[in-house]
What does this fold into?
Amino acid sequence: MYREALFLFVILVAEGFLEDYLFGSFYNRSADAQKTASVVVTVILGSTLGFVGNHLYMMSAKRKILRIIDSHLTEDETLEKLKRAGGTSLAFLYVLIVVDLLLL
It folds into this structure.
């Protein structure tokens, strides 16, 4: 799951750099036009990446759930294993924030 999140993060950062380069270099438009275009592109790309990220997460979660259910454990063991597999970790979020701040 972390590979998919890292992939989406890299795409988002690359898009930001590309957007700055394209709107800053190729277009001699007013600042308002550049700001509007930047906001539109960011909203569209953010929404698209959000949907893709949610889809990847759902696929990953379904695979984990099916793997645990297919392990033929008792109901209590299955529930306990599902609870442990469904936990969250903020460590990866902190790493992404640090990397993002370093790239600014």
Q: What stands out?
A: The chain is about 85% helix and 0% strand. The chain has a mean pLDDT of 80.
